[in-house]
Every structure is written in structure tokens, then in C-alpha cells.
Specification:
Oligomer: single chain
Number of domains: 1
Number of helices: 11
Distance between the termini: 43 Å
Shape: globular
Strand order of the largest sheet: 3-2-1-4-5-7-6
CATH class: Alpha Beta
Structural class: alpha/beta
Order of helices and strands: HHHHEHEHEHEHEHEHHE
CATH architecture: 3-Layer(aba) Sandwich
Helix content: 25-40%
Radius of gyration: 17 Å
Number of strands: 7
Largest sheet: 7 strands, mixed
Strand content: 15-25%
């Protein structure tokens, strides 16, 4: 497997700006084969200009388009794609092992409505056309708990503005996290954005998963260890 193929837009500047792990455990042979042979058919080429109607990256064109940032093991992304076959899904994940896992699920389930980007979500958001997405999910992101690392968290004023640009009016940003500090951070950042409205009306609206939510392995692990997740939904105004 050629790692440069997996991350074709890597430059010194974006390498300094990106903080996620790119490699983990060595891939099994079949996983490596999927990365080499299946991923090129599903990977977005953001070197090329995005189509004006970005749902046309799917064949047939999708009726709607959603994005999951940092999909980890891919459980939630694969489940959503199977539940909503007329919707197109983009999964963004720079971690090679996570990419191999979603490819295995795509192959096993013959899932045709997922496209993938193995890189920095900021670059993908900049490439997507304005008002092209109906929803963005960020589920159990790395919390970067040390104060000196907070600048590495995905949720920042700049990324919120980037998400607002690509979300349709009425679209949603959904955030799941079991780290209280990062939940508070996210609420405070979204509250000062003029583009989003928090949808919670009662405590259970953020204490309980939304209807149809697929729990991830990390979510189950957090629950076993006594950490309660918050499920935050924000509407694009």
C-alpha cells in the first residue's frame, strides 16, 4: 500500500496543520488490498473542481448528501448508508486503519452510496460547493484534553463557518461526545455563531441518542467505563 496514494494532497503546510494519526496497526493483507484497489474507485479527487451539483459524484445521482467527519471504525457511517440508500454519504477519515475498516464494510454489504476522503476535513469542506450538504456528523472526535492542545480540536470558529457555508438552510450539524469539557466547548462555540441554533428543548434531547442512532464501538466503551455522552444537534439557520 502506497501511503502517498492515500493522502495525495499532503504538503508541508497542511501536514503541520493536521494533528490526527495517519497510521496504526499494520493492515492485514485483505485490508491493504482494499485500500489499494477499492479505495481509488470511491475516493474523492479534490484536486479537480467539485461538480456544481455534487450529488452527481454518485451513480445514479443521490437525492441528498451528508458528511461524516472522522468516522473511526465506520459503524455509524455504514449503518446510515444502508438505512438511507437514496442518500449519498461522504466519509472523511485520515486514519488508515479506519479507512480499511469502512472499505471492508462497503465490500461486505455491497454499499454503493458512500464516497471517501482520506485527508483533512478542512480541505474537503473548502472543496464542497456552498449549500451542498443536508447534514454533517462529528461523532466522538479526539477531545485533545490538554489545554495547550485545544487549538487542535475540530470545533473552532473557522470550521464552524466552513460547515455553515456547505450546509443547506435547515440542515444539521450533529455532535456526539463523552467528554464534558469538549461538549461545553462545542456549545459555547456554536452559541456565538450566527449561523446555527441548538435544537435541545429538554434535557433528554441531549442526554439520549436521536432516533435511529447507531452506537459506535467507542460509544459502547465509554458507557462501560461510566462516561455519559451528549448528543448535540444544531440547525443551520
Amino acid at each position: 500500500m502506497n501511503d502517498d496514494k492515500l493522502h495525495p494532497r499532503r504538503t508541508e503546510d497542511n501536514e503541520r496543520a493536521f494533528f490526527g494519526r495517519r497510521k496504526g496497526h499494520k493492515l492485514r493483507q485483505h485490508q491493504a488490498d482494499l485500500v489499494d484497489n477499492l479505495l481509488p474507485h470511491l475516493a474523492l479527487d479534490i484536486e479537480s473542481e467539485a461538480p456544481a451539483n455534487v450529488v452527481e459524484i454518485f451513480d445514479p445521482a443521490a437525492g441528498d448528501l451528508r458528511l461524516e467527519i472522522g468516522f473511526g471504525g465506520g459503524e455509524h457511517l455504514a449503518a446510515e448508508a444502508q438505512l438511507f440508500p437514496a442518500t449519498g454519504f461522504i466519509g472523511c477519515e485520515p486514519y488508515v486503519n479506519g479507512m480499511a475498516k469502512i472499505l471492508a464494510q462497503i465490500e461486505a454489504g455491497n454499499i454503493g452510496n458512500i464516497r471517501l476522503f482520506a485527508g483533512d476535513a478542512a480541505e474537503l469542506l473548502a472543496w464542497l460547493p456552498q449549500a451542498s450538504l443536508s447534514r454533517i456528523d462529528l461523532i466522538h472526535p479526539d477531545p485533545w484534553p490538554k489545554r495547550r492542545h485545544w487549538k487542535r480540536r475540530f470545533v473552532q470558529d473557522k470550521s464552524i463557518a466552513a460547515m455553515a457555508r456547505v450546509l443547506k438552510a435547515g440542515g444539521e450539524f450533529r455532535f456526539v461526545c463523552d467528554i464534558d469539557d469538549y461538549c461545553a466547548w462545542t456549545l459555547s462555540h456554536l452559541a456565538r455563531s450566527p449561523d446555527f441554533q441548538w435544537l435541545a428543548e429538554r434535557a433528554d434531547d441531549f442526554r439520549l441518542p436521536w432516533v435511529g442512532y447507531t452506537m459506535t464501538r467507542y460509544g459502547r466503551k465509554a458507557a462501560r467505563e461510566g462516561r455519559k455522552a451528549a448528543y448535540l444537534r444544531f440547525r443551520r439557520l
